[in-house]
Amino acid sequence: MKIKKLEKKVLLKNGLVVDFDNRDFIKKDILIIDGKIREIKESINVGDDYKVYDLKGYVISPGFIDVHVHFREPGYENAETLETGSKAALAGGFSHVFCMPNTEPPIDNAEMVKYVYERSESLPINIYPIAAITKGRKGQEITEMAEIAEFGAMAFSDDGSYVQNPLVMRLAMEYSKLVNRPIVDHAEDELLKDNGVMNESEVSTRLGLKGNPAVAEEIAVYRDIALAKFTGAHIHIAHVTTAKAVELIRKAKAEGVKVTAEVTPHHLVLTEDYMIDFDANGKVQPPLRNKKDVEALIEGLKDGTIDIIATDHAPHPIETKETTINEASSGMIGLESAFGLLVTHLVHERKIPLIDILEKITINPMKIFNIPASGIEVGKEANVTIFDSDEWWIFKRENIYSKSYNTPFIGCELLGKVKHVINKNFISIMDNE
Fold it and tell me: Is the pLDDT of residue 433 over 60?
């Protein structure tokens, strides 16, 4: 993959532009000058002073948005940095990402929020920090939310940990409402979870592995929906995994509770059965669940109960994965493989319309988190992802730009290949282009 400055005058020719209003893909040409979209028409002719990208057969979408990544900086740069994470994002088609605060030190104050923005200013993607709910992510004392929000934190989360104390969570919701920021909820009751390493089931019993029961998520989701209803705050349930949680979110939405939700690609395409081979790349938090849960997640996507697809990109050094399941770190990388997994397993196999999947990774995140990202409009900064939805490819180690490669999907044949991302006056060009 090459990343370079976008030419001063550019014509995107013959691409199929996503039209969300009419749920269609329309052949259009897009004229870009100095990084801004100047014209969108059925056909545009230009002189030799323009760089023309012939995109016949390719789709032009608003840049993909991932509201849940771990770029590990500061503190764990041996696993990922903002720079390597941005390359992984571009390879997967993502122009905007939200970084979780479980760094060292954690993003729990205004200076840390400022640090992320300053460090990422020159990078080709937009990186937005999510700040911690509690100081040190210890679950005891809420952070200075007003000041942190003023410095640009997009939301608040103790992701990686649950805010176990309901009074602390109530206060956090009340303050988050005042500053108009969502609470992103890692909904797993820590006491019930009890250091389980996979879904609690007959499979975990057979494998002799400690289970993390579905009820740990269900109780946490129930409690925090109740608190959101009580406080009027916006709660966003991260990485939903269970059928009961989907049911609770659906019911809460029908009652008018301000609740939104996300799901990861790996929870949509893998089940607990992956753990039979004791591959620690399948150890994630929350864990892979059973087939019934996966079906409920997909149904939740289809009916709008689940609003967003987010990767929970979680890089770890290889030595923390090449060990026993009990000792291994939880998490897998996801940015580079996400789009191919979604097109393969949801669009191709499940016949979910491609435009529905694109909504979950573009306009829905924009609306829910008030992201200052651009759609495909005249006068806006060019922010697009260009892909071939019909190309089959093998996901190989060489396709990984993350500093880590902890993923179970290496060697998988995938449908849907990202070709370019244009953002912040940069363009990424995949190696075969």
Answer: no
**416: region left, alpha or beta (phi > 0 left; psi from -120 to 50 alpha):** left
Please indicate, yes or no, whether residues 135 and 196 belong to a single structural domain of this protein: yes
Active site residues: 312
* Residues 261 and 357 grouped into a single domain: yes
Q: Report pLDDT digits (tens) over 88-135.
A: 999 999 999 999 999 999 999 999 999 999 999 999 999 999 999 999
Distance CA 148, CA 179 (A): 10
Query: 11 and 136 share a domain?
Result: no
70 and 55 within one domain: no
Residue 343 CA to residue 354 CA, distance in Å, equals: 7
User: Rounded to whole angstroms, how far apart are CA atoms 44 and 29?
Assistant: 6
Q: Round to whole Å and give the CA distance between 171 and 140.
A: 11
pTM: 0.97
Are 271 and 345 in contact, with CB atoms under 8 Å apart?
no
Residue 287's domain spans which residues?
63-369
Q: How many domains are contained in the chain?
A: 2
Q: Encoding tokens for residue 15?
A: 């691409």
